[in-house]
Specification:
By secondary structure, the chain is mostly helical. It is built from 8 helices and no strands.
Length: 174
């Protein structure tokens, strides 16, 4: 379904390829545009009732593609280590881990992944760190520890959100 929010999400795919250029201005522009389209797609979808299943999958996938592509470029340029990239992706590992938990429990197909606060905070922090790396600013090592902490918080938030959603469904008889 081609809606304005989905088009905004899709824009992050070609923006990732801008990182093949070594010009920091173009790279920074790509990151800023990725941040803008990430915030705008969800806002437009909710504001104009354009939320759909395609968008709920496309938006995070476009985010992941952008971040993974950029991380790969930065690793190849030796601006980021594999270990730092691993910490950078802790929230994503948490989502995968929770998805496996749901699959084992037989609830994955009925579960609707939604945005979580830890995820939003992590995305803003990720894109800010990418901006810093683009301009070759030193990134303090403790910041990668913050990514690990946010990954743990994301796992807890996913579990708590799921638990309260199931509890309210049971109370309403659904």
């Amino acid at each position: 379904m081609l809606t304005l929010p989905n088009i905004l999400s899709l824009m992050r795919l070609p923006l990732a390829f801008v990182f093949l250029q070594e010009n920091p201005f173009y790279r920074a522009l790509a990151i800023v545009l990725a941040m803008a389209t990430d915030g705008l797609d969800g806002f437009v979808a909710r504001r104009y009732s354009l939320v759909n299943r395609v968008g709920t999958v496309l938006d995070p996938m476009a985010d992941k593609f952008f971040v993974f592509f950029v991380l790969t470029v930065l690793i190849r340029e030796n601006r980021l280590s594999f270990q730092e990239a691993g910490f950078f992706l802790c929230r994503d590992f948490s989502v995968i881990l929770y998805g496996l938990y749901l699959a084992i429990r037989g609830r994955l197909m009925n579960y609707r992944f939604r945005a979580i606060w830890c995820g939003k905070i992590t995305t803003v922090l990720q894109l800010s760190v990418l901006l810093g790396l683009t301009f070759e600013l030193p990134i303090p090592s403790y910041l990668f520890g913050v990514f690990a902490l946010l990954g743990i918080f994301a796992l807890v938030e996913l579990y708590q959100t799921d638990r309260s959603r199931r509890r309210s469904q049971q109370e309403s008889g659904g």
